[in-house]
Write a structure and sequence with these properties.
Number of helices: 6
Shape: globular
Number of strands: 6
Distance between the termini: 17 Å
Order of helices and strands: EHEHHEHEEHEH
């Protein structure tokens, strides 16, 4: 198996889950990160323990290789953000739709309420939504959204 790339690599993709609540979504997101050579960042508080079987089960036998970076809160993550790259905050409230090339740090909120308003407001020019054909669907499952964004961002790299 290839060693994990350092998380400071300028062209690397990063997935940031802010206050995730559901362990199997985090496990699935971690598996997608591994598949698309992205680093997983988790911003506390988490709604579960990373030791829970549900996280490892969703990550299958790959979870040991995901090696997530855990940040104690948004403020400590935000201090590291400039060295990671250009953020894209994925939110259903965004006016523009996500397109590959918009950035390399993909930030997602928790399952029940999404990203906190103060974070969305602070990064207003960096928000995007995943385009959907049916307006009756207000949002996607977190791990599904992560997979879509990583696949689109990877483009011909896959």
């Amino acid at each position: 198996m290839l060693p994990r790339a350092p998380y400071k690599k300028a062209d690397m993709r990063h997935v940031v889950l802010v206050h995730p609540e559901i362990p199997w979504n985090t496990g699935n997101a971690g598996r997608s990160c591994l598949a698309f050579d992205a680093r997983l960042h988790l911003v506390e508080p988490l709604g579960f323990s990373l030791e829970e079987k549900k996280v490892r089960r969703a990550g299958v036998d790959y979870w040991a290789h995901v090696d997530p970076i855990v940040h104690r809160d948004w403020e400590s993550f935000a201090l590291r953000l400039p060295e990671l790259g250009t953020p894209v905050l994925l939110t259903a409230e965004a006016e523009r739709t996500f397109e590959p090339g918009m950035g390399n740090v993909f930030i997602f909120g928790c399952e029940s309420v999404g990203l906190p308003k103060e974070i969305r407001d602070a990064y207003r020019g960096h928000t995007a939504r995943i385009p959907m054909r049916d307006d009756r669907v207000r949002s996607l499952n977190l791990s599904t959204a992560v997979g879509i964004v990583l696949y689109a961002a990877a483009g011909s790299d896959v």
